[in-house]
């Protein structure tokens, strides 16, 4: 069977691809273990890996129907739709955000509908669907109130996926991701960039600025667990979702101070001291609008689990991205 | 100034048109009372009235951009977007529902955005955005969980209107309507058609089938109050909505048995006995998924009010639609 990952060149798409290839099979029902014979990594740039006979690297615009029709057919049993224009960019370029986050998502659902084989479609969504006055713990039935175009577009895509699933056009599921930390790669313009930067940069020999106060609470999931949750989310029997296909993935709630203390305990003072505090009101405001914790009862019932602790997250990052070296000063 | 009503030939559009014409002005700010110099009633069929020099009757497909561009210009200060494919039809014809309830709504927002004058846009939405396991009283922050394509399309349109408003492209507001009763006209394909039919049909000499059990609770608003709320909703200062442009309109909670008892009290046994009970599981299921009551604190703070009682609703229907005659057997 074929599997498609949109956004397949991104860090999460790459991580998911490695996870799928190492598993080799998807358990789509109790009776069926289907082998992943072809894994299409579709993105606007060529994915750099993984190097594997099963991987097909594809370049294309997912808002172009012919591109989707080229890479989705009735053998495409599972689609992981990770491609998105990120929040800052969707706010700066409204038309681009609508085109990719809304129109392309709908087009993907339509292409599946026309094929008629009701594939599993896993959408990733975001904390950005929430906003306004929030309770301390966001529940599964807390109303969405996005305060960004990115959040609004994700909310719209969630509702479309739910209705296409209810009608049997697809067998969809939406996984709302906590803030992913520790991300590999470079710092970027995202408001959440620091949530990885304050760990990754010191560990790789660089200074890093923390723009929020130490008592800022974050709701985190590691890339490793995120990839595991995406696969597990795909394997859940559709009926288990009942009348709602959207699930908040479990995370762990930690303060920024706790994260840096863990870095200090694991990697030593010299490395932890590479974090420089420099408050940025704009980022504090955005991050402060995100829910610091959400109720994970439903996710756990569905078999989706969080990281054990931030120390686990940190040690996994060292294992996965730094070759297992825990660099001391 | 110009005012546009989409769905202007429908019963609510017609009722709203009469309300606007009799008021003659819209109070769009404390300082400004703008005269309604032109009222465009746009629909797929020609509106039959009201006969008034200010009225311009227009026929066109609102999913056609050129139609919207013809009837919206920078003098169009207020738009009431009532046109929709009803729930039963949107469920039966998925593409049609998406085209009118989603694409045309978005197109309307886009046409306004391109003009750049940020007009007031009043969308009507529906109880159908709710569904699944609901608490007895739906709160303003109860999560949406539509269980029909109509509900999903309305939810999507709500999020789009909110984001277009947040960005200043329009000055929008969404009013979620309770079930409107007593509607004039003929029974239609809406699952809620009986909520008017069981009163209107007996009063106009016809038998009527009630497809749900007597203890079914409905959340009702009269056409008269609905038109008043639409005008009031348009006149509210945008800032009063805070970070959420969507408001649940106040209604009254009554059971179907109470409705028929009121009919019996007001119009007599012979008329009330024209209601025939014949359960329809499909309709019971849809209606049973709707909330029977919602918290109206926010609506009332914004100055939007409900009918006093179902007896008031019934007597208003007799006054407004039957010329004041309360027909006895």
SSE order of chain A, as H and E? Answer: EHEEEEHEHHEHEEHEEHEEHHEHHH
What count of domains describes the coordinates of chain A?
A: 2
Strand content of chain A: 15-25%
- The CATH superfamily of the largest domain in chain A is identified as NAD(P)-binding Rossmann-like Domain
- Helix/strand-derived category of chain A reads alpha/beta
Largest sheet of chain A: 7 strands, parallel
Contiguous runs where pLDDT drops below 50 for at least 5 residues of chain A: none
- Oligomeric status: homodimer
Rg of chain A computed from alpha carbons, rounded to a whole number of angstroms: 19 Å
CATH architecture of the largest domain in chain A: 3-Layer(aba) Sandwich
Name of the CATH class of the largest domain in chain A:
Alpha Beta
Strand order of the largest sheet of chain A: 5-4-1-6-7-8-12
General shape of chain A: globular
Most extensive protein-chain contact, per-chain counts: A-B, 25 and 26 residues
Mean pLDDT of chain A: 94
CATH topology of the largest domain in chain A: Rossmann fold
Give the tally of β-strands of chain A.
14
**Helical stretch count of chain A?**
12
Helix percentage of chain A = 25-40%
**Straight-line distance between termini of chain A:** 48 Å
Model description:
The structure is a homodimer of 329-residue chains. Chain A has 329 residues and is α/β, with parallel strands linked by helices. Chain A folds into two domains: 2-177 and 221-248, Rossmann fold (3-Layer(aba) Sandwich); 194-219 and 251-294 and 303-321, UDP-galactose 4-epimerase, domain 1, CATH 3.90.25.10. In chain A, 40% of the residues lie in helices and 19% in strands. Chain A has helices spanning 11-23, 65-71, 87-92, 94-115, 149-166, 194-203, 223-235, 256-267, 269-272, 281-288, 297-301, 310-321, and strands at 2-6, 25-27, 33-35, 38-43, 55-59, 76-81, 120-126, 171-177, 179-180, 208-210, 217-221, 246-248, 252-255, 275-277. Chain A has a seven-stranded parallel sheet, sandwiched between helices. A three-stranded mixed sheet of chain A has the order 9-11-13. A two-stranded antiparallel sheet of chain A has the order 2-3. In chain A, strand 7 (120-126), helix 5 (149-166) and strand 8 form a beta-alpha-beta unit. The longest helix of chain A has 22 residues, at 94-115. In chain A, 50% of the residues are buried.
